[in-house]
Amino acid sequence: MGARCAVISVIVLVCLVALAVGLSGHGEGLRGVHRGLKRRGPTVRANVTGCNVFQGSWVRDDSYPLYESSNCPIIDPQFNCQMRPDTEYLKYRWRPATCELPRFNGLYFLLKMSGKTMMLVGDSLGRNQWQSLICMLSAAAPQSKTEFIRGDPLSTFRFLDYDFSLSFYRAPYLVDIVSVGGKRVLMLDSISGNAWRAADVLSFNSGHWWSHKGSLQGWDYMETEGATYADMDRLVAFGRGLTTWANWVDSNVDTTRTRVFFQSISPTHYNPLEWQDPMAKNCYGQTEPVSGWSYPGAYPDQMRVVQAVLNKVQNPVYLLDITTLSQLRKDGHPSVYSGDLSPDQRANPDRSADCSHWCLPGLPDTWNQLFYTALFA
Fold it and tell me: What does the sequence similarity comment in the record state about its family (predicted)?
């Protein structure tokens, strides 16, 4: 009887060790996994054993994509690229210059976030990432009971078996927009973030809407320091709005329980001269990334604003710096294959191509792999 118990104990121990190794997904890459979500100091770069994971290149990997779009419970038509005749864009993996990224392990993610809440706050690029993360986690736990509550501005997807809520809050400018006399006023000094405070992990993004003009502009006037403006330098406005956000983080986030991320500017690919292709019109017809680790085009001016504000914020905010690695992915956009477009629009890629958002599966899956690394490595 004693010998039998000893054998059983050994078997249990072996199983537990195997489970721990399996959950790590990539043993070397996940050393020092946090117990819970502990506070870190101010960080603007992700490091895995001293490696800058945001600097590298794209390599072909036939084990990608990480999930099938047909198996994902939530992909907006805007991000659904199943009408694309090519599939090569799905077969690329981000490889940092001096290390390997831990492979995304959705089951490990869900176990670590069990009983917790995560909220992404921002514009449609944030929604792009949010839906990608739902797809990646659903692929890891296909039998998990789920609940989806779609709303505006708040939508929530819950993995019920893990008591984990993953939400998206639409706030393209982060700061408030109020209606005054039938006009939309962008309040550069005001932010209403009560719905964000309770999250265990907060990830913010903003940028694209600050440059929109004409029919795409989301406001009629701007207000700051009690003065109203019909317009102003957009980088100045972005800086004032982002400073208001940073002040909100410093005043309202309890960093002993909540980790804060800011995702850098996601690039567009409307100008092929940026990647030195004078024959192209935009991202339409692009089927492979820019080779190498540097992008020939300019780095977004908005990133100077982001860096300046993050250098002043007092609470720890982690910059998920996806800008350059995304610039290299001129092939990753829906182009004319978005499910939102009509046949006539698809026939006119010069005017209709979406070179701003990203296909799912696709590039946002790598954003979430980096997010995963920042959270747990």
Answer: Belongs to the PC-esterase family. TBL subfamily.
Please tell me which residue in 208, 269, 333, 357 is annotated as part of the active site: 357
CA 34 to chain centre: 21
84 neighbors 114 (Cβ within 8 angstroms): no
Q: What is the 3-state secondary structure (H, E, C) of 277-301?
A: CCCCCCCCCCCCCCCCCCCCCCCCC
Contact 147, 137 (CB under 8 A): no
Question: If DSSP codes are grouped into helix, strand and coil, which group holds residue 332?
Answer: coil
> In residues, how long is the chain?
377
Beta bridge partners of 184: 179
Catalytic residue among 176, 321, 354, 365: 354
Cα–Cα distance between 296 and 336 in angstroms, integer?
25
- Active-site residue 124, yes or no? yes
Q: Model-level pTM?
A: 0.88
Return the DSSP state at 81.
Answer: -
Q: What is the mean pLDDT of each run of 10 residues along the chain (377 residues)?
A: 41 38 38 34 49 96 95 94 95 96 96 98 98 98 96 97 98 97 97 95 97 95 97 98 98 96 98 96 97 95 97 97 98 95 94 97 98 95
CB 370 within 8 A of CB 137: no
For the chain, the domains span 43-174+192-221+238-376
Q: Pairing mode, if any, of strands 154-159 and 164-170?
A: antiparallel
Q: Position 110: which residue type?
A: L
DSSP 8-state code for residue 362: S
Catalytic residue among 24, 124, 138, 203: 124
357: annotated active-site residue: yes
- In three-state secondary structure terms, 312 is coil
3-state percent helix, strand, coil for the chain, nearest multiple of 5: 35, 20, 45
In angstroms, the Cα distances linking 162 to 104, 145, 243, 259, 324 are 18, 9, 36, 20, 34
